[in-house]
Amino acid sequence: MGRSRVLALVVAGVLVIAGVGWAVGSRLRSPADEASARRPPKPSLVTAPAERRKLTSTVTVSGTLTYGSPLPVTLAGTVGGAGGAVGAVGTGGTPQRVTTAPKPGPIRAGQVLMQVNGRPVFAMEGKKPMYRPLVPGTEGDDVKQLQRALRVKVTGVFDAATVAAVKRWYAKRGYKAQESDLESRKTLQQLRQAVQTAEETLAADRKALNEGLDVRPLRIRLDNARRDLRSAEKALEEVSEITPEQETQLAASRRAVRAAEEQVLAAEQALAEARKPAPTPTTTPAPTPSAVDTSLLEMKLANARQDLHEAQQAVFAYEEQIRVERDKRLEELRKAVRTAKEAEATAAQALSRARKVSPLRMKVAHSKANLADANAMLAEYRKTYGVSVPAGEIVFLPTLPARIDKAEVKPGDTIEGKVATVTSSAFAVTGSVDAKEAKLLRPGQEAGMETMDGTQLPATLTATGEEARLTPAQGEEGEEDDGSDTGSVPVLLTPGSSKGLKSLVGSPMTVRISVGSTEGEVLAVPVSAVVTSADGRPRVRVALDGDRTREVEVRTGLTADGDVEVTPVRAGELKEGDRVVVSDV
């Protein structure tokens, strides 16, 4: 019984081994069989249908959603004083230290941006930056900006009305406008005293110069020359047409003329009486008288006329003598005036030359310079005296309301540079594209943006290149489009809607910018289906029954997303639904 079982087991093992050997042997192949099994299958065609649809070519941008128009904010001067440039120390040596830092978030016109040393820094709308303290009498466009913000009459001059408006502005917001303190008033008084002292010193030096012994004789000489000149001019002014003596003598001569005229008249009358005929008698005629002898009367008349002529000639001669003597006197007086003027000019010139070389003159020149400096310092100080707006207490921003994006300082910091970054409330998408693709982009092109959750929103390309940089690169060279096809170019896009974007600021966005599209539906095939023949003409192969194909010459158009617009050269050779060969497999 035991032997039979053992024998059965041996026979069963042999059968199992034989079966395994047969199975393995049936699966083994020779090298020839293996090579025959690896032969390539019979070639077949890979095709794609020709479709009619609208093609749109796009450039894809991987960007980030952010706020637009970032602007670094710096203070133009000290806060709480009339100082100039910003530094660690302000007026009177007080450090310019932040007491309240800017808070990220919206900011409106007139709002306090921050506090420095407890003083406010206001945000106001204006295109021109604050660059100087605004004090009484200041003129300019920055003053006009301030007046517009304060809603007072725009004159461009920091006048009394503006001063009153500044006081109201600060008081309404719980602050006091910057005014001159006790120390400033003391300084003003000291400057005034310095001017007065300089004036007194100059007056004393001038007096010493005028009284100097080295120029005194010349000064006396000039005074005498001036007195002589005044005397000569007075004598010339007072010279009369005729002297009293001459007037008496002339009157006597004229009386002699009148007496001679009377003698002539009497002689003429006597002669006329003598020459009258006798009257005619009415009765018995009397004896005729003898002729009257008139020779004596005629002689008297001739003598009288001669006396008149001589008297008249005497008057004419004396009048001529008076004229000659007067002219001679006038010439002598005019000559005396000229001589006196020359003497005065000579004396003045000599005194001037002496004063120029006098040591006292140098002292007077120095006193004049000191007075000019004192007046200049006083005038300069007056510019910042009274109610003023310190250069650091206003920040003009181009557009308000805006948004504080980031505070660059914290309480306790000293002011050394940028204090915050302000952006507009509008959103923007920033990114970059290859320089080659950038050549296809133009501001104003439409785009579509997609958020991480798949939301689709419209957008517009705003700028490319340097104009698209929201912040300038610091410490490194940016990659610019220099005309080559390498590198990257920044792009800036504006979302078409701001709804729901506030929570997505800082998240990535995929934007597709449309750079071209067909006017309507066109016949399109995959780009790989178009081949160029030896003659340089593009063609496609249309699949027929089996493995047969036929070539169709086409004209190509817009390419988009791997497809290309095609138009058959011969109408009807290619139509929608035809399958074109993409590759041979």
Structure description:
The protein is of the alpha+beta class. Helices cover 39% and strands 23% of the residues. The protein is built from 10 helices and 22 strands. The strands form 5 sheets. Strands 2-17-21-20-19-18 form a 6-stranded antiparallel sheet, with no helix packed on it. Strand 19 and strand 20 form a beta hairpin. Helix 5 runs antiparallel to helix 9 (359-383). The protein is elongated.
Question: Secondary-structure map with pairings?
Answer:
Layout: H1 2-27, H2 31-37, E1 45-49, E2 51-53, E3 56-67, E4 71-74, E5 98-100, E6 105-107, E7 112-116, E8 119-125, H3 141-150, H4 160-172, H5 182-210, H6 216-238, H7 244-274, H8 295-356, H9 359-383, E9 394-397, E10 402-407, E11 418-423, E12 427-434, H10 435-438, E13 446-450, E14 456-464, E15 488-495, E16 508-517, E17 522-526, E18 531-532, E19 538-543, E20 549-560, E21 563-568, E22 579-584
Parallel strand pairs: 8-9
Antiparallel strand pairs: 1-22, 2-17, 3-12, 3-16, 4-11, 5-7, 6-10, 7-8, 10-11, 12-15, 13-14, 13-16, 14-15, 17-21, 18-19, 19-20, 20-21
Helix pairs in contact: 5-9, 6-8, 7-8
Subcellular location: Cell envelope
InterPro entries: PGBD-like_sf (IPR036365), PGBDSf (IPR036366), UPF0194_transport (IPR050465)
Coiled coil: 188-270, 294-353
List keywords for this structure.
585 residues, PGBD-like_sf, 23% strand, alpha+beta, 6-stranded antiparallel beta sheet, coiled coil, 10 helices, 22 strands, 6-stranded antiparallel beta barrel, elongated, UPF0194_transport, Peptidoglycan-binding protein, PGBDSf
